[in-house]
């Protein structure tokens, strides 16, 4: 392995079996700029003494994501996976 990349992965990409631009994991629903705006809002509110619950951040994310889109009635909020990924990505820690 070179740089912790398995040799078979490199061969597959070179031979065209796997797209060179292929990424691991799910597509994100927000751009980096959109996540930064959401992060800035949440951290500002925390700084002035208004903390959010996990559920409220999930609903806020859903509302921000759905701006200008039609959403299904059963789409209540974003998933726990999204929330924990968001926290991990931006360095939040969820507290009880």
> How many extended strands?
0
* Overall geometric form: elongated
How many helices? The count is 4
What gyration radius follows from the Cα positions, in whole Å? 18 Å
**What fraction of residues sit in β-strands?**
under 5%
Main sheet properties: none
Q: Give the H and E element order.
A: HHHH
* Poorly predicted regions: none
Structural class: mainly alpha
**Helix share bin:** 40-55%
User: Separation of termini?
Assistant: 42 Å
Mean pLDDT, all residues: 79
Task: Give a description of the structure.
This protein is mainly α. The protein has a domain at 29-90. The chain has four helices and no strands. The chain is elongated and about 55 Å long. The protein starts with 6 loop residues before the first helix and ends in a 6-residue tail after the last helix.
Q: Which descriptors would you attach to this protein?
A:
96 residues, mainly alpha, 49% helix
Chain-wise SSE layout:
Blueprint: H1 7-14, H2 32-47, H3 54-65, H4 80-90
Characterize this entry briefly:
The chain has 96 residues and is mainly alpha-helical. The chain is built from 4 helices and no strands. The relative contact order is 0.11.
